[in-house]
Amino acid sequence: MALEQDIAKLIEASNDLTTIVDNKIQDIDNKVLSAKSTVDGYINQVNNYIDSTRGKQSHFRLTKNQALLPNSDSTFPLNWSGGFVKSAKVVETVVTGSLPEQRSALAREFLQAINSDRQHFAGSFKIWEFEYYPNRRGENQGQAAYLMYQYSRRTTVSTAAAIVKHIKGVVPNGYWCQGLEANQPAKLCGQLLSHSGRNSYTHCHPYVNGMGKPETETGIIQVALPAVVTGDVDLTNKEWGQFAYLGDADQPAYN
Asked: Burial level of 41, CB count in 10 A (0-12/13-18/19+)?
């Protein structure tokens, strides 16, 4: 009888200990969850602050002629270099001040790509159509070609973008064509450029990776408002427009 009582007491003590341990574990879990919730709250505050400051940055243009005004003989945009572009022509001049319903479908398509399908916006601009080679010609046909470009000085972080519409051929990528899709409506394309060092430069040319295709198999895209600007522009929200030009005193500030 005494042995049975001792066993019963041991079982009761064991159960009590188990209950205490379980309660302690639950208490620890609750404190961990509470701490995690507090940390998550701080992280969300930090992320929200970062998101809000991203939209408050000042952006200045590092390249000229974002409106794509033509050169003196109207064969190419002023201040832009041709790359492996075969031909170029203006297909539309999009004018501010007109009522949306008075504009062409193409003009509205390009404006909608940057949330600007309204009567007034920063300034009139031109839409150009470029026919380009799928690769480098001659002995270098095995290498990627590149499109219209311009010199720009590097900042630690900058953004290259444009409104682009693919018409036919190899889809270019990189710089102001990053994210372009074949046979889709005009869209805002581009990418964030991160650089180390401060005394360097870049040429903002998209690539045409059509190696192995015959030289006659050219591609066509339509382009408006290409530029490289300082800072991180949120392209996912169609945050693009005509930016103020930040240039040297000896370089005229073209539109």
From this structure: exposed
Per-residue pLDDT of the chain (255 residues; tens, 9 = 90+): 666 666 666 677 667 667 777 777 787 777 777 767 776 666 776 666 555 665 667 889 999 999 999 999 999 999 999 999 999 999 999 999 999 999 999 999 999 999 999 999 999 999 999 999 999 987 667 789 999 999 998 888 899 999 999 999 999 999 999 999 999 999 999 999 987 677 788 899 999 999 888 888 999 999 999 999 999 999 999 999 999 997 765 454 455
197: left (phi over 0), alpha (psi -120 to 50) or beta: left
Token pair in block for residue 230: 């300082």
Structure token pair of residue 32: 């961990």
| String of DSSP letters for 102-162 | GS-HHHHHHHHTTT--SS--S--EEEEEEEE-SS--GGGTTS-EE--B-EEE--SEEEEEE
131 forms bridges with which residues in the sheet? 87, 220
| Global confidence as pTM | 0.78
Find where tokens 């539309």 sit.
Answer: 92
Buried b (16+ CB within 10 A) or exposed e, 146-172: bbbbbebbbbeebbbbbbbbbeebbbb
Please provide the DSSP assignment of 47-78 as one string: HHHHHHHHTT----B-SS-TT--B-TTSSSBT
Q: In which element (H, E) is residue 167 found?
A: strand 157-168
